[in-house]
Each structure stands twice: as C-alpha cells, then as structure tokens.
C-alpha cells in the first residue's frame, strides 16, 4: 500500500505537492469515488482517475540529458519552439524536466516521471550542488571572484556563498572562462551574478548536477541513470 499522492506523482501526473492539491480540490477518484483527504492508501489493483481520466502507473525512469542551446526546458511550447522532450523519441513514459535551464544555456538536465524525487531536488532547503562553466565578457579579476564567493545582492537578496575557479582568460578578445559552484537554484542566478559584477555571460553550461556529470555526452545526447546513481541522487536530496 502507498499514499495516493505518491502513486500519482510516480505516474507522472505532477509533483507530489501539486498532486495533493488535486486531491483536496476533489479532482481525484479512487475506484469511482471522489477522494478529498490526504493520506489515503491505495494498492496496485485500485483504479485512480484525475479529472475522470485514468492514470497509468508507470515504472519510474530517470535520464540525464546534455541539453543543447536554443531549446526550451519544457514538455511543450505554445510558440512551437523545440523542447527537451523532443529528444526522447521512443520513450513511452511521460517524462518531464527537473527544474530548468535557459533557452541558450546548455548542460546537465534530469528528466523523470518521478514527481516525488523532482520535488525533493527542486526544494531550496536541499541545496543540491551544481557546477557551471561560464564564458563571460571582460577579464575577471581575483577580487571579483571573491565577491561572487562571499555572495552578492541580486534582486534585494544576497546569494549564498559559492565556489569559483578562473579557468582561462583571453585578453585579446576580452573574455574569461569561470567555473562556479552553487547550492542555490534561483531563476537565472549565474547570469544575474555575473551581470552584477560587470561581466555579462556570453555562454553558459551546467557541467555537474549533484553526483551527475555530462562527461561523455555530446550535446543533445542522453542516457538512462544507473541504479546506484539514482540512489545517490535520492540520498543527496534527503540530506
């Protein structure tokens, strides 16, 4: 027996929290009866419907994608632009991205139908480590890196301490490449941080997400996560 909202999340309906909202709104039926209370237990034989549509109890699947540039981190786009799930032809499960990367940002992106894990990974309190490599305008000085490391105020709130490493400088072209490690996940945070210190980002890649790296994956390529990687990821989220 499992909690109804957990089963719904695993089936790819939505995150666990949003599934709880669907239940309290009276939009969920179990064996033909509307359920509005949280904590209801269901088994594999129970019929579950959301808005009168039966849900399929899919086995949870987990993928790591090296997201290309100029692609939307979503399952659909009302403007007809390419989305990351377009790359997963042949996958029967209804997967969706965990968090987001900007249209022009590349790198590590997890896709899954496990709504519970997705919610854990995106919750601010879990502080999953993410490593980015940014090509920025201008020659970055050590004192600027120290500012980023200590935290800077963007949109009225100071960023958490970060780790940085200057990888290279091209004085002739007036650009620098910087590695920055964050535990936060605020909207467009890396770009806003560099913008705030006078070094606009020209190119950005997320190379590491938690215990996962895009090493060995070409742009647009993906792979299914191994069992031990999934367990490590879950442990990071719970810690």
From TrEMBL:
Positions of the RNA-binding S4 domain: 2-69
Swiss-Prot/TrEMBL keywords: Isomerase, RNA-binding
Coiled coil (residue ranges): none
Entry GO CC: cytosol
GO function terms (MF aspect): RNA binding; rRNA pseudouridine synthase activity
InterPro entries the record matches: PsdUridine_s_RsuA/RluB/E/F_cat, PsdUridine_synth_cat_dom_sf, PsdUridine_synth_RsuA/RluA, PsdUridine_synth_RsuA/RluB/E/F, PsdUridine_synth_RsuA/RluB_CS, RsuA_PseudoU_synthase, S4_RNA-bd, S4_RNA-bd_sf
GO biological process: enzyme-directed rRNA pseudouridine synthesis
Entry EC no(s): 5.4.99.-
Superkingdom classification of source: Bacteria
Record NCBIfam families: pseudouridine synthase (TIGR00093)
Similarity comment text for this entry: Belongs to the pseudouridine synthase RsuA family.
Name of this protein: Pseudouridine synthase
Species the sequence originates in: Desemzia incerta
Native organism taxonomy: Bacteria, Bacillati, Bacillota, Bacilli, Lactobacillales
């Amino acid at each position: 027996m499992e909690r109804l909202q957990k089963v719904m999340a695993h089936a790819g309906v939505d995150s666990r929290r949003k599934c709880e909202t669907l239940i309290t709104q009276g939009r969920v039926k179990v064996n033909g009866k509307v359920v509005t209370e949280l904590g209801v237990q269901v088994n594999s034989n129970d019929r579950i419907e959301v808005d009168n549509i039966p849900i399929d109890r899919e086995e949870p699947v987990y993928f790591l994608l090296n997201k290309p540039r100029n692609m939307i981190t979503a399952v659909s786009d009302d403007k007809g632009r390419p989305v990351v799930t377009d790359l997963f032809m042949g996958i029967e499960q209804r997967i969706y991205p965990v968090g987001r990367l900007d249209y022009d940002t590349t790198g590590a992106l997890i896709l899954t139908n496990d709504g519970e894990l997705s919610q854990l990974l995106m919750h601010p309190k879990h502080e999953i480590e993410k490593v980015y490599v940014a090509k920025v305008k201008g020659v970055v000085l050590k004192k600027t890196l120290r500012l980023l490391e200590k935290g800077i105020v963007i949109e009225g709130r100071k960023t958490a301490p970060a780790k940085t490493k200057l990888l290279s400088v091209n004085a002739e072209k007036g650009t620098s490449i910087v590695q920055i490690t964050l535990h936060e996940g605020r909207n467009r945070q890396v770009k806003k941080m560099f913008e705030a210190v006078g070094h606009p980002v020209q190119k950005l890649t997320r190379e590491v997400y938690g215990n996962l790296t895009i090493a060995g994956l070409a742009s647009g390529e993906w792979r299914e996560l191994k069992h031990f990687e999934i367990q490590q990821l879950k442990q990071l989220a719970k810690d």
